[in-house]
């Protein structure tokens, strides 16, 4: 009898414990069902996440993209570099490296002479310059998604030479807007340049000059609205048997004064010598989108100019001088980091003929 009571007690206890466990699980399930669940945020738009980080759920971002979207979308606008010398291939690659790293949504195009294709396809050892251009163009296409376009010369001049004019960019009618940056230069902030794709244009060619009033007004940035009609009429307007790139650039209408928030879209190194004591180098570099490196009577930034030449051409005031030297140094570093190239040795000046030779002549 005692054994039967023990068995009954044990089974009764087990039944009670199992019921208690089931009751607690039911209570927890009810609590979880009653408690409001946090709503998972919608997945961020790939475009917004790419260019602005995760959107905070404010309509500002939709408004920004709507008001700053180029005509036809980003697939219809492009940065294009017309490279006619092997020396400038690296500069084009440097520009596109920064644009890619800063996630500019515009397309990227490099146009170069079709004659290079034959040179680069040779089976024998290539000229060092050709070999370097071949490597850099492959890098541009593979790493930075640059479209490569070999083009044939379009204009024959009187001496029989054929040239590839800047006006040829108007033939790229697959795009609604192009931006061309004359060599050489540095992109510091692509957002200001990207904004130029959205500006209205009343003509097919428009330029932005970064020079001072004391300098020539050739543009440091050229905006183009390509079309077959514009390309044809521009070629027909050029003097027969004569083409000057400087004349072509100087005849491009310049963009009027930009709004206040775009004052530093474009700058030019030669203009720094005109800055006053209120100039601040760090502020200038932080607020400028593109610097056109061009100083008269001086080799380009691709060359290792002697220090006495650098000193003679640099601005005299401390802060403009610091900005000027920082730009040249930044160009040197980018040339090495992006292209794997050191500066070119500066060509030695031609020696004056000796007195004896002068007497003979």
Question: Topology of this structure?
Answer:
Blueprint: H1 2-34, H2 46-52, H3 60-67, E1 77-82, H4 89-101, E2 107-113, H5 115-120, H6 128-144, E3 147-151, E4 155-156, E5 162-163, E6 177-180, E7 185-187, H7 190-195, E8 205-208, E9 221-224, H8 228-237, H9 245-250, E10 266-268, H10 281-286, E11 290-292, E12 303-304, H11 307-313, H12 318-339, E13 344-345, H13 355-360
Parallel strand pairs: 1-2, 1-6, 2-3, 10-11, 12-13
Antiparallel strand pairs: 4-5, 6-9, 7-11, 8-9
Supply database-style keywords:
361 residues, alpha/beta, 6-stranded mixed beta sheet, 13 helices, 13% strand
Walk me through the structure:
The chain is α/β, with parallel strands linked by helices. It has helices spanning 2-34, 46-52, 60-67, 89-101, 115-120, 128-144, 190-195, 228-237, 245-250, 281-286, 307-313, 318-339, 355-360; strands at 77-82, 107-113, 147-151, 155-156, 162-163, 177-180, 185-187, 205-208, 221-224, 266-268, 290-292, 303-304, 344-345. The strands form 4 sheets. It has a 6-stranded mixed sheet. A 3-stranded mixed sheet has the order 7-11-10. The chain is elongated, with a radius of gyration of 32 Å. The termini are far apart. Residues 39-65, 259-263 and 355-361 have low confidence and may be disordered.
